[in-house]
Amino acid sequence: MSNTIAHRSGLQMKPALLCAVSLTLLGTTGCGTGRWLGLGGSESSNNAKPTGNNTPSPQLTNKEFAEFAMENANSLRQQGFYQDALRELQRAIALNPELPAAYAQAGDIYRDLGEYQQAEKSYREGVRKNPRDFDNNFGLGLTLHLMNRLSEAVRTYLVALTIRPDDFETNKNLGITYLQLNEPRQGLPYAVRAVELNPTSGPARVNLGAIYAALGDDRNAVVEYQQAAELMELSPELLLNLAESLRKLGREEEVFNTLKQLVAVSPSAVAHERLGAALFRNAEYQASYDQFQRALEFDPDHYPALNGLGVYKLNVYLWSDKRDRSAMNEAITAFRRSLQINPSQPRIIELITRYN
């Protein structure tokens, strides 16, 4: 359409990392010392008293006492009595300082509570005691990842993989950490390996799809996203990523259907703006305008929706043979508001300069 300004919202779609660092992608199950995530940040609020194992026999050696304390700590942790569990682990370490599992369990609890510095300290001590202990290396890598110390996390995950090359979670996390570092090609083999190790993991397939998308391989990205959608509960990130890769492949009808589904299950400023952009590309201009307005109802500062609104109004001005000056003024106002929120938009600056 020669007399229509193409809609460019300015939203740079990045592969959504169900992790921010998302706990879903980082894994919520594990073995060894647990690697549990998301237990909450406080002690159990019920009135129950912690119940550990029976009092150990006084004939036990220090090593046996330490193992008993470890078992007690695990029981207390499962009941939600984290501080009591930590005290048991401190007792285990005092009785047997060479017990790496105690450091790993303590690190896990601190991480569950969001006390990442304490978790890091505990894991590092466990690694110092036994550099080849997998659980402490993995826990340290995950904690560094959660602290957004991504380069350190990569190095630590790589150490963990030298100990246990086929660990699913480590491969999965390493792939997404490389993507967060804008090194998707480095992360690809680990993301592929994670899917090979657990083909039914939706999060692993989302990670792999995000890496394919970052590498410009949207065809394979769509395959992974669609398989993930069959394996896990649909999330806004998954649907947005799928829609973006479908858009790049020119599969507009599927884009539209995916975004309609997104707006239905999880309406948001981003969802409505993306649907508005799809409608605009399909020449459904009034419907696109309505979606941009809905996006701004969710978030008045969502600058891509302001850009979409501005582009629509600018086209109204052009369609009127440049007689509808009020439409042009509304467009310029929307663009200026967008630039106040995000000044780094050369395309929007160009439009203001050309039409103001």
The quaternary structure here is single chain
Order of helices and strands: HHHHHHHHHHHHHHHHHH
Question: What is the tally of helical segments?
Answer: 18
Low-confidence spans: pLDDT under 50, at least 5 residues?
A: 7-49
Distance between the termini: 22 Å
| Fraction of residues in β-strands | under 5%
> Can you count the beta strands?
0
Assign a percent range to the helix content: 55-70%
Instruction: Choose one word for the global shape.
Output: elongated
Quick check: average pLDDT?
A: 84
Biggest sheet statistics: none
Question: What class would the helix/strand composition place it in?
Answer: mainly alpha
Please provide a brief summary of the model.
This protein has 356 residues and is mainly alpha-helical. The protein has helices at residues 23-26, 62-79, 82-95, 100-112, 116-129, 134-146, 150-163, 168-180, 184-197, 202-214, 218-231, 236-248, 252-265, 269-281, 285-298, 303-319, 325-341, 346-355.
Which properties best describe this structure?
356 residues; mainly alpha; 18 helices
Written account of the structure:
The chain is an all-alpha fold and 356 residues long. 68% of the residues lie in helices and 0% in strands. It has 18 helices and no strands. Helix 4 runs parallel beside helix 6, helix 11 packs antiparallel against helix 12 and helix 12 runs antiparallel to helix 13. The two termini are 22 Å apart. About 12% of the residues have low confidence.
Secondary-structure map:
Blueprint: H1 23-26, H2 62-79, H3 82-95, H4 100-112, H5 116-129, H6 134-146, H7 150-163, H8 168-180, H9 184-197, H10 202-214, H11 218-231, H12 236-248, H13 252-265, H14 269-281, H15 285-298, H16 303-319, H17 325-341, H18 346-355
Helix pairs in contact: 2-3, 3-4, 4-5, 4-6, 5-6, 6-7, 7-8, 8-9, 8-10, 9-10, 10-11, 11-12, 12-13, 13-14, 14-15, 14-16, 15-16, 16-17, 17-18
